[in-house]
Amino acid sequence: MLNVNDKLGGVPVCRLKGFRSWFDCNAMIDLGFSGRKFTWNNKRVFERLDRAICNLEWRRLFAEATVRHLPRTMSDHNPIKICLTSCFSASPALRPFRFEAMWLHHEKFNDFISEAWGPGDGTAVEKTFALIERLKHWNINVFGQLRQRKSWLLARIAGIQRALCKGPNRFLSNLETSLIDDFNNVLQQEAVFWQQKSRITWLQDGDRNTKFFHTTTIIRRKRNKIERLKNANGIWIEEANSLKILAVDHFSNLFSTTSLGDYVIDPPNLFPPVDVVDLHGLVQPINMTEVKTSLFNIGGLKAPGADGFPACFYQSQWNQCVDDIFQMVVNAFKECRIPKKLNYTLIT
Predict the structure, then answer these.
(1) Which of 79, 166, 229, 274 is the most exposed place for a label (fewest CB within 10 A)?
(2) Contacts of 18 (CB under 8 A, 6+ apart)
(3) E strands along the chain, which residues?
(4) Strand partners, 40
(5) Closest to 219 measured CA to CA, from 95, 88, 100, 56
(6) What is the tens place of the pLDDT at every residue in 96-116?
(7) Are the C-beta atoms of 39 and 78 separated by less than 8 Å?
C-alpha cells in the first residue's frame, strides 16, 4: 500500500515505507481506478493491495489509459482491468478557443495585436471575441506548428555543423548561431505551452522541464475526465451520447422553475455588518491604478474567461488595451453601483 487510506479496519498500517520509497525513487505514477476502492478483504479488513502503476514514459505513450476494479468472484482479490484507449473521442471542431501563452513569445505577435486591436468601436470583450478568428488564422500561417519548426531547425543545424567539419566558414558559423537562437526560442515556447496546459502554479517561471509539464497535463486531464455516470435508477452509463443526455437532463431538471407555493424562504444572517464608512468607500470613483493592480495580481496562466483569453494576454498588452479595459470596468461599476438613496441602516 502507498497511503494509510488504503486500509480500513484491523491494526494501523505500518508497512508503507519500503514500497513508498521504491515508488518515489523510480518516479512511478499510480494510474488511479474506477469502481470500488479496496481490492482485497477478509470480511473484517479491507485493503487496496492491487494497483496499476507505470513510469513517466509509459504514461505519455498511453495518455488515455484507464484502470477499472472489477467484481471478485472466485478469489478474495478484485481483478483489475487496464484499457489503453478511451471510449470518448473529442472532436477538434467542438473545442472552445483558448489563447496560447506561447504566442506572446513570437517576435511578430505584438505587431499583429497592434494592427488587429486598433482604436475601433466596441468594448474590450467585443474586441477580444472579434480577435479569435484572426488569431486562429495567424497561428496557422505565421506562428506554425512547434513540432515541425523544431524538426526543421534541428535538420538545418545538423547540416551546417556537418559542413563546418570540412573547414571554417564565417557565414555558416553566423547562420548556426542564429538558428540555435531560434531553436532555443522554440523550446521556450514549447515549455510555456505545456506549463499553461498543466495548470502548475507553484513552479516559478523560467523552468523548461517540458516532460514534467506534459506528464502533469496528462494526469490532470485523466483526473478531470468523466468516463461514466450513474443514472437515477443506479445504473452506470458509459456510452458517450447517453452520458451527454444524462448530464443535460440532470441540469435541466436542476435549474428548471418549480412552484414553491406558499413556502417562504427565510435566509439566515450570512453577512457581517458593514460600517457606513466602508459603504461610502464602495461608491467612490475607481481609478486606473487600482484597475491595473487588480489585473496584474491575477495569475497569468489561470483559467481563462468565456472569451478564452487568460490574464497574461491583457497583462502583456496593457499599453494597447488599457483604455478599453478601464472603460469596461467603469461601465460594470456603474451598473452595480449602490444607489444614493440606499438605506444604510438596513444593510448594517
Answers:
(1) 166
(2) none
(3) 7-8, 29-30, 40-41, 46-47, 53-54, 66-69, 80-83, 229-230, 236-237
(4) 47, 77
(5) 56
(6) 788 888 888 888 888 888 888
(7) yes
